[in-house]
Design brief:
single chain, alpha+beta, eight-stranded antiparallel sheet, 2 helices, 33% strand, globular
Length: 175
């Protein structure tokens, strides 16, 4: 495999909270690759204390200050779902991100298996343009801090309103 084909992901935090991920090599370009990225992001979010509440993250093609060679962009925390730091309507009016994620910490995740207490979960929405034949895509992941992925589902051609996470993300993109 050629190094140019690899996707590098480096999480970063500030003040003890997960603030985002540096993406290097190249961006994920398929639903499968975004689901794999989401699995890693959820595993990071499952670490105790890194994510205080459900948080929205947006993919950005801008580079950090003094980027390492090969850096292609960032997936940054845009704000929480509820509360004082909530993402406000119109946040994405000027530029729609190619991917929007919602990560839920263990305290806000009801695990699919009772023996998986402490699992975190998340969703990635890859917005399409249905009127042009480009369907919406999404993936959902649940994972534990030891790296175990307890659930992974992806869909193409979904109606965003059919799931609470994709509905919130789609509403944020549309506002």
């Amino acid at each position: 495999m050629n190094d140019r084909n690899l996707i590098g992901v480096s999480p970063f935090h500030a003040a003890g909270l997960l603030r985002g991920f540096v993406i290097s090599g190249r961006w994920p370009d398929t639903t499968k690759e975004w689901a794999q990225f989401l699995a890693l992001a959820v595993q990071v979010a499952s670490m105790p204390g890194l994510l205080a509440t459900s948080t929205v993250f947006g993919a950005r093609e801008e580079l950090p200050d003094d980027p390492e060679p090969g850096t292609v962009g960032l997936v940054l925390a845009e704000g929480t779902v509820l509360g004082d730091a909530a993402v406000t309507p119109g946040r994405f009016a000027g530029h729609q991100p190619p991917a929007l994620l919602m990560l839920h910490p263990p305290s806000e995740t009801t695990p699919t298996l009772p023996e998986c207490l402490g699992a975190a979960s998340g969703c990635v929405l890859l917005p399409g343009l249905p009127h042009l034949g480009l369907e919406h895509r999404a993936a959902w992941v649940e994972a534990e801090s030891d790296g175990t992925v307890t659930s992974m589902v992806s869909r193409i051609g979904l109606d965003p309103i059919s799931d609470p996470d994709t509905a919130v993300l789609a509403m944020l993109l549309a506002s």
